[in-house]
Amino acid sequence: MTQLFDLLALDAVQRAAFALLLGAIGLPIVGVVIIGLDIVPVRFAMMHIALLGIAFGLLTGVDPLLCAVVACGLSGAGLAPLARSASGLSGAMGLLMSLAIAAALLVLSISGVNAAGAFELLWGSILATRTGDVVLLGVIAVVVPGLFFLRRGQLALLLHDRELAACSGVRVERLTMVLLVLVAVAVAGAIRLTGALLVDALTLLPALAARRMAHSLTGMAWWAVGFGVVVNLVGFVLALLLDQPPGPVLVLLAGVLALAAHLIPERRTPEWQSSPREAVSPH
Amino acid sequence: MVHGVDLVVEPGERVALTGTNGSGKTTLLRAVLGLHPARSGVIEVGGVRAGSAADWTRRRRDAAWIPQKQAAGRFPLLADELLASSGAPEHARTAAEELGVGHLRGQPLHTLSGGQLQRTYLARAMGCVAAGAGLLLADEPTAALDFAGQADAARMLTSLPVTVLVVTHDRAVVNRCERVLEMAAGALREIT
Ligand SMILES: Nc1ncnc2c1ncn2[C@@H]1O[C@H](COP(=O)(O)OP(=O)(O)OP(=O)(O)O)[C@@H](O)[C@H]1O
Ligand SMILES: [Mg+2]
């Protein structure tokens, strides 16, 4: 126990804990949006695009991680027009992924940088969190929940049915673009925190667990943030106690939670069966 | 699919659209809302031809649409959220009470029965009209309703102070419309 407190006194550990707490506020809501837009493979696409951004940064001398975030944001905006059909986004992301990795390798070869160095930046490490990452996560923690609660009615309509949203006065193209840019930037930020392979623990897994617990978009967002906070804080402390890398511990914990949520039998509300009026006066 | 349709509906007129399955009735209604891109031809509403995205947004907001396929959707939506999307939540909620689905407001749409869902969409349309929509586009709005519901809905839909274009095979609705058109293989024919 004293060992834990010694660790918690360290600067890097404190910054990591703070980053995880910030991440737990915005990223699980992003996960809910990812499920709602049906773009679960988005993280693979962003991983490749981030690599292209890093390569560009290494070539030009601009901060590679900033380039990665910008590249992800731009590609999110570029994808928006393809969201019109249900299959449009997934197909386009596959294509984008291949193009981005090809371009990245080409740029790396031109810039004469060792490709392994660029890939290394993708792994991320929670304990190596930099101030820039904390700022990005802080912005996400404010912007995502803020936008969500201001626009939750429109968002619920859009994720339910695009045409219904369009016929309710929602500007679907613009809202979709904002969502895709946010998702892209947030995933890029989360990749920095846990590494590309473990980014699900912060985004998708809390959202998947929440989907099981709530029947409305707002309810899901609350549950997702709750799960996110619990997973991140408990997982981080557990990792410190066990002296293991935080990333895998977080993923395992989030995975167990999502699985447990799916084992709970689906909730049934009493009104679901019959109307109260019918119950009183049978015809 | 739909071709050579030349239809003028006067403001405040009630027009029933009938015709064989697959003849293009739904396609025609969706084209009015820009949900089905027209390859050629012009559809004006209130003398306005929609060009820009803003035009389409305005036209869609100015219309109360009851879709034929009331999709369960990819993501849960509460009945109350559907009612609120009309732009006049209180009116839509009152209409939902009148239509006997007021108590289901807190339920997600996918847990409603077909008729309950259709009643909720009807209530939403009432809200849209209260919010200022001047055109009602209803696609088989009574197809899932019980006998009493069909009669109530027919009365409700045709006593609104708006222009009505309703696809229907329900006698009660047809009888309350001034004009009846029949669509066959994508072309229109006036019956009365
Ligand atoms: N999304 C689509 N893609 C391709 N064809 C379609 C699509 N929707 C409808 N169709 C075709 O267009 C034609 C007209 O369809 P529409 O839905 O307008 O018919 P309808 O008159 O409303 O029929 P119903 O009485 O069965 O509702 C049909 O042949 C149908 O198969
Ligand atoms: Mg039809």
TrEMBL record, chain A:
<dbReference type="GO" id="GO:0055085">
    <property type="term" value="P:transmembrane transport"/>
</dbReference>
<dbReference type="GO" id="GO:0010043">
    <property type="term" value="P:response to zinc ion"/>
</dbReference>
<feature type="transmembrane region" description="Helical">
    <location>
        <begin position="16"/>
        <end position="37"/>
    </location>
</feature>
<feature type="transmembrane region" description="Helical">
    <location>
        <begin position="178"/>
        <end position="208"/>
    </location>
</feature>
<feature type="transmembrane region" description="Helical">
    <location>
        <begin position="220"/>
        <end position="241"/>
    </location>
</feature>
<dbReference type="InterPro" id="IPR001626">
    <property type="entry name" value="ABC_TroCD"/>
</dbReference>
<dbReference type="InterPro" id="IPR037294">
    <property type="entry name" value="ABC_BtuC-like"/>
</dbReference>
<keyword id="KW-0812">Transmembrane</keyword>
<comment type="similarity">
    <text>Belongs to the ABC-3 integral membrane protein family.</text>
</comment>
<feature type="transmembrane region" description="Helical">
    <location>
        <begin position="247"/>
        <end position="264"/>
    </location>
</feature>
<feature type="transmembrane region" description="Helical">
    <location>
        <begin position="49"/>
        <end position="76"/>
    </location>
</feature>
<feature type="transmembrane region" description="Helical">
    <location>
        <begin position="96"/>
        <end position="122"/>
    </location>
</feature>
<dbReference type="Pfam" id="PF00950">
    <property type="entry name" value="ABC-3"/>
</dbReference>
<protein>
    <submittedName>
        <fullName>Metal ABC transporter permease</fullName>
    </submittedName>
</protein>
<feature type="transmembrane region" description="Helical">
    <location>
        <begin position="134"/>
        <end position="150"/>
    </location>
</feature>
<keyword id="KW-1133">Transmembrane helix</keyword>
<keyword id="KW-0472">Membrane</keyword>
<dbReference type="GO" id="GO:0043190">
    <property type="term" value="C:ATP-binding cassette (ABC) transporter complex"/>
</dbReference>
<keyword id="KW-0813">Transport</keyword>
